[in-house]
Design goal:
This protein has about 525 residues and is an alpha/beta fold. It contains 16 helices and 26 strands. It has a 9-stranded mixed β-sheet, with helices on both faces. A 7-stranded mixed β-sheet has the order 7-6-5-3-4-8-9, sandwiched between helices. The protein is globular and about 70 Å long. It binds adenosine monophosphate.
Length: about 525
Amino acid sequence: MDGLMMDYPLTVDHLIERAGRLFPTVPLASRLPDGSISRTTYGEVRRRAHRLAGALRRLGIERGDRVATLAWNHHRHLEAYFGVPLAGAVFHTLNPRLHPDDLAYIATHARDRVLLVDDVLLPALERFRDRAPFEHVVVWSHGDAAPEGTLDYEELIAPEADEIAIPRFDENEAVGMCYTSGTTGRPKGVLYSHRAIVLHSLMSATKSGLGIGQGDVLCPVVPMFHVNAWGLPFTGTLVGCTQVFPGPRLDAESLLGLYEQEDVTISAGVPTIWMGILEALEREPDRWKLEPINMIVGGSAAPESLIRAFDRHGLNLIHAWGMTETTPLGTVSSLKRALLDLPEDERYAIRAKQGLPSAFVDARVMGPAGEAPWDGETMGELEVRGPWVAASYFETPDLADKWSPDGWFRTGDVATIDADGYVKITDRVKDLIKSGGEWISSVDLENALMGHAAVREAAVIAARDPKWDERPLAIVVLKEGASATADDLRGYLEPKFAKFWIPDAFVFVDEIPRTAAGKFLKSALRDRFGDELAKGS
Ligand code: AMP
């Protein structure tokens, strides 16, 4: 050993080994499909993760093989997050909301050898199992016998030892895998290394990251199949805090009930979840007695109005940005000390931005003329690099141009960076509206519209226009019982935007189509409404 420091690998097995040893009695709670709560501890999760690893080896799983999960958030899923790596394999989370054709494609492309599946998701599995390569299907059941052709998880791990010998892993080995659920093209696989997950967990735990400590009660609402629930189950295990898993019940009342009952202090989810929770709180403000909760919001832009509204309920929304390719945390919006004295409106405007790049994440905005200045105005494609940013897609060499020649990842998001370093996402590259050569941010318009008292949701798309090439068109869902006309909404936007930004038309619909990850499916909206202006309606 002649280096300066010891060669100690940053590997995921350390997280559960440490939690099992230092925090063996810290409780973990999972809500089951029937609404009841199942409780366990880190000591127990560690023992069962070892048993799972032993069982996977017995099934013939070898170093680097993929073991898939198709499951909601619960502690047995956490056991797989650690048990699969302890066996030297790669845990690959499948998203049950995807179309069966996509699931068949993803499982085949990843060459998943074993699947761990929730009994409540067996119907979803049946729709693609005959096209998937699984050699064994293991069922997380709630009492029923495993159906024919499957193995019961509890029976599988029962004969195994509580502790197996863990080989020394290389920190750059793959440990996890997730496919992006983009709105165009084939899903693309990202392999996470041990090192990426460990460094990401350390950064997330910091106060300037997401601020998670041992005394917290962490409730990841964001699914464990979506970028590892933003890495939170790993971060929670790293710090040894209590974790509360909501299972399949993601409606506002179930979540609020769980927050109250389990004294949750930190949670995370997409804006749609928080909008539902806000509606419930506004309906019955005194019903739930909550701790002060830090609520991380990401996945899509959080409207400023949402952040303001939660403050009125004493709940703190923290806006963050990331991607499957970035493990996911890229930026987090918290106010620098020097900005705390700004007028309220300016403070909210900053909190509504996506935030400062995390430590070890470099960010730049690239326009046609090279790197854009940090002036908060010049838009261009956001590029990032860092130790938890993917360097390639799994076995997809034709997408190498997603990385710049000097090694930055091209996010496909359009952004500005201001003089203080705050990144603001203004669009996806493909959703940006180009009107008469000028760029218009659909996201800014959507967020402003969602601040109108009558508007539940709004999506703005580029509609074809013979004169300007493209013009903004707003698709609006009104709140139940509320009313607003196109003129009302136009009048509401006019003071906030340049004249040429105001949408040419407002279409009212009952629902906005979404992707499997809960984001607006703008391609479907463009197919349906893209020619609306040309029609003259
Ligand atoms: P995914 O890989 O499915 O997590 O999607 C990543 C994409 O979601 C990013 O490239 C952004 O387009 C979008 N996204 C994530 N977080 C935010 C955010 N806070 N604001 C706006 N868009 C976001």
